[in-house]
Amino acid sequence: MKIYVTGASGFIGSSLVRDLVAAGHHVTGLARSDRGAAVVEAAGGAVHRGDLADLDSVVAGVGDADGVVHLAFSHDDMSQIHANGQRDLAVVEALGTELEGSGRALVVTSGSALVAGSGSPADEDTAVDASGGVGAARGPSEELTLALADRGVRSSLVRLAPSVHGDGDTHGFVPTLVRLARERGVSGYVGEGANVWPAVHRLDAARLYRLAIESGPAGMRWHAIAEAGVPVREIAQAVGDAVGVPTTSIDPADAADHFGWIAGFATVDNPVSSTRTQQLLGWQPTGPTLLEDIRAGVYDGV
Fold first, then answer.
1. Helix axes 173-184, 232-243, angle to 10 degrees
2. Do the domain assignments include residue 301?
3. Any residues with CB less than 8 A from the CB of 44 and at least 6 apart, and which?
4. What are phi and psi of 239, to 5 degrees?
5. 130 and 159: one domain?
6. 39-79 per-position pLDDT tens digit
7. What are 26's strand-pairing partners?
8. Mind giving me the DSSP string for 176-194?
9. Same structural domain for residues 160 and 261?
10. pLDDT tens-digit map of 182-233
11. Residues with Cβ within 8 Å of residue 302, at least 6 apart in sequence
């Protein structure tokens, strides 16, 4: 297959390019900078220069591709997540319009945190509450992706775990917790820390994207979840041990001061199942667990 990937130079995207190339696919990756282009080329992909802010440049990369994986999203400023979500929606609409009626594949990225607080493990049928919070920011892109299946696109979406871990993870939630532990002198969790985060290794996540673009049916949600829920208290303990600082509970009233922008995620409870994803796509996670990566020193250098 010929596959076009946005976010191809990123933490997951570069792994996906390597996985796709190893499986015999021809890959073109969107890159907005010389550094990004070098990463795509090193992973074995061809480069298409463009920027998410320029929809024409993004769409021009589709060409005669058999499928598109949309991984790119601006995480630079979480205070702008709603504006970033609107920009993402515009990209999905532009890609969907380009692919409309072709039967070609489009796999779009979402997140399991969009279905947090459902009271029981969310599965692939659990819809996003787009009325507020993160769901309002990214939910519309998810809804549009599913709707594109009725417009002749083999569209589906991958919900990533909040913790996609592995070598090279420098901007996610766990490296943020590591930096906070160094700055504060303690590794914290909120209250009892019994809330859970799902997790997946970056290589397992990349393989799931490949399976979805190769053979996933239209209108599906796929859960890139290897661990249904890791207690945040255990994550904090592993971080504290790795950094060499004590682990302590943070009063909920002090969470915003202690955790900053990540405070809302520090308190989220997000148990998620990937049973159907594994059954339908034959996806079997094989990478290290989140706690194994922390204890192995993956985050020592962040």
1. 50
2. no
3. 17, 18, 21, 22, 27
4. -65, -45
5. yes
6. 999 999 999 999 999 999 999 999 999 999 999 987 655 56
7. 2
8. HHHHHHHHHSSEEEETT--
9. no
10. 999 999 999 999 999 999 999 999 999 999 999 999 999 999 999 999 999 9
11. 169, 170, 175, 178, 179
Phi-psi category of residue 84: left, alpha or beta, with phi > 0 → left and psi -120 to 50 → alpha: alpha
Is residue 61 within 8 Å of 8, Cβ to Cβ? no
Could you tell me which of 138, 302, 164, 278 has the C-alpha nearest to residue 230?
164
| Same domain membership, residue 61 and residue 188 | no
Instruction: Tell me the backbone φ, ψ of residue 269, rounded to 5 degrees.
Output: -110, 115
Same domain (yes/no): 115, 192: no
**pLDDT given at position 132:** 66
Rg (CA), the chain: 19
Number of domains in the chain: 2
Q: Is the pTM of this model over 0.70?
A: yes
**Domain around 249:** 167-197+229-271+287-295
